[in-house]
Amino acid sequence: MKWGYSLLKYWTVGVAIPFYVYLRLKKLELRFVPMPNRIGHLVGGTELLLSQRDAGEIPETIKYISYFPPSYQNPNRFIVKMMKKSPEFNVSHINYALSLVHRLCGHTITVGEYGWYERDNTGVLLKTKPHFWLKDHHIKKGEHLLEKLGISPDDKIVGVATRGKSYLEWFYGKNPAYHDCRNCDIADYKLAITHLIHTNRTVIRMGTHIDNILEMQDPRYIELDHLGLRTEMLDVYISQRCEFFISCGTGIDALASRGYRKPMLYVNFSNICGLSVWENRCLQIFKPFWSQEKGRYLTLHEIRKMGACHFTSVHNTQYGIERHDNTPQEILDATQEFEQRLAGQWVTTSADQAMQKRFWEIFMTPYPSNAPSCDVGKRECFKARIGTQFLRDHSYLLD
């Protein structure tokens, strides 16, 4: 098979050369995009890139050429197959050959400022439609699978995802420990899940190779992977169908948030420079930053000034920072507020609105830091909110 693949590669390179020359003669700026092998970046970046194209934000002089490298490690074969078949997103074999020709000509492969930085600075996702809708036969298959669990097509479902080390250990064969500060425990979600069940919703835990199982006797809480019922297609179907999604900011939530523009509740968010500020139906609370040196929690100003908003576990150790998980009560408070906001029942006080305004003023202030990713002041679309009770309980953030 190796000689067969080599023959195919050289054949496609030969075909690609005249096409490459044609593109260069048109004086197009070519930007080659090797597809990410993490589902969050794969779905989030692709959807943003296509939406920017639809909205006319990518200059006509720039041509993006996406491709799957030969050694590509597939995070979700179903969604990748959808992308390969999509008429809106060309990722044919010729694209990889074009990248080889590009390298042979002495050029490097760079991504550029569109798409893969995944910053929706202009709120383009709110102005465009999703690109990877499921076909009718996939929807029927998804309905059939959920009906086996007692979920009818009219039932309300909520997706929930937590981050742990087991998935990365399975996917990479090791755990990149520098992201351990982003992990959280599903047990802390039990109060919120119980509340959602009492409001006649079914809560489905998403993801594969998850760390801990939440034991609940109610059949309206479902651990898909633990039951052996999780499929890659079902990940996509539930993300498209769910009423809203609860996540800590882990890869699979990109299917719901960016892929299908679903309302998002983020709890236990860790890298606050990545807060999804552009999502208009979004509520967020994050892990407080405890300073071992100061013996107290850091203010938002201190977090931004020292660049801690992007810290990994390595940085935390270096600077003596601990990130404390949100409490079960904080997660419940945020869930109840989010639910009421979606229903149009939440009443905001002037004092709470002032705290919200103050938070985003600090958040948007440019700070000279050791991380360019912390420069969030240039974002033009701030639609999301921080949990009201969270800000009340952590008012020191605004000092």
What percentage of residues falls in helices of 4 or more residues?
40-55%
The helix-and-strand class reads alpha/beta
How many strand units? 12
User: How many structural domains does the protein architecture include?
Assistant: 3
Poorly predicted sequence stretches spanning 5 or more consecutive residues: 1-5, 111-116
Major beta sheet summary: 7 strands, parallel
What is the typical, i.e. mean, pLDDT? Answer: 85
Strand order of the largest sheet: 5-4-3-6-7-8-12
Strand content: 5-15%
Question: What letter string, H or E per element, gives the SSE order?
Answer: HEHEHHHEHHEEHHEHEEEEHHEHHEH
Distance between the termini: 64 Å
- Principal-axis shape equals globular
Number of helices: 15
Question: Could you tell me the radius of gyration in angstroms?
Answer: 22 Å
Write the layout of secondary structure elements.
Blueprint: H1 2-25, E1 29-34, H2 39-54, E2 62-67, H3 77-85, H4 93-104, H5 136-147, E3 156-161, H6 165-172, H7 190-198, E4 201-205, E5 221-223, H8 224-227, H9 232-241, E6 244-247, H10 253-259, E7 264-269, E8 282-286, E9 289-291, E10 296-297, H11 300-305, H12 313-319, E11 321-323, H13 328-342, H14 350-364, E12 385-386, H15 388-393
Parallel strand pairs: 1-2, 3-4, 3-6, 4-5, 6-7, 7-8, 8-12
Antiparallel strand pairs: 9-10, 9-11
